[in-house]
Amino acid sequence: MDFQTEEQEASYKKVASWLPEICDRISHPVEEKPIFSLQFGSAAAIVEVRPFRQAESIIYIWSYVATEVAIKDDLLKFLLKQNEAFRFGGFSMADEGEIRFHVTLLGESCQKNEFELAINEVLESADKFDDVIVETWGGRRATDDLFV
Would you say 64 and 123 are in contact if contact means Cβ atoms under 8 Å apart? Predict the structure, then answer.
């Protein structure tokens, strides 16, 4: 495994110890990177453990919501308004037309219950908004691409 800091490695080991109790379908899509892929029914989430500053790490949990979406002003306004209502996390775009939902946690202080709540927030939000986004602005639900 390619760790950049000791804090990143410690957080990765903590997350790795929690995951078997939370999810039974876990894979390592990029074996040399501290990334987990989780499948819950028809939903999927990615957990990345990243270095952060000099003495910390972050746990970045995300899921695709929709892909191939035409980005329009009313969609962006909708996503920003929704972000205000979330308890944790929010919408983001990694690439044009790919909408994600994500939560970021501090690695060192993260507790198992907080981690589990964050995973549930990501999965529930992706599942709730995929149909709304695709029906209103087009594109494809991310689960349509992942589980064909």
Answer: no
Ranges 4-8, 44-48, 74-78, 143-147: which has the least confidence: 143-147
d(CA 38, CA 54): 28
Are 14 and 113 a contacting pair, CB within 8 Å?
no
Q: How far apart are CA 118 and CA 110, in angstroms?
A: 11
What's the DSSP call for residue 26?
E
Predicted confidence band of residue 145 (pLDDT cuts 50, 70, 90): low
pLDDT in tens, 30-50: 778 999 988 876 678 999 999
Whether residue 21 contacts residue 51, with contact meaning beta carbons closer than 8 Å, is answered with: no
What the block records as the tokens of 79 is 């996503």
* CA distance linking residue 83 with residue 87, whole number of Å: 9
Q: Which residue has the tokens 């009313």?
A: 74
**What is the torsional sign of CA 93, 2, 43, 52?**
negative
Token pair 């087009």 in the structure block, residue: 138
Instruction: Grade residue 29 by pLDDT with cuts at 50, 70 and 90.
Output: low
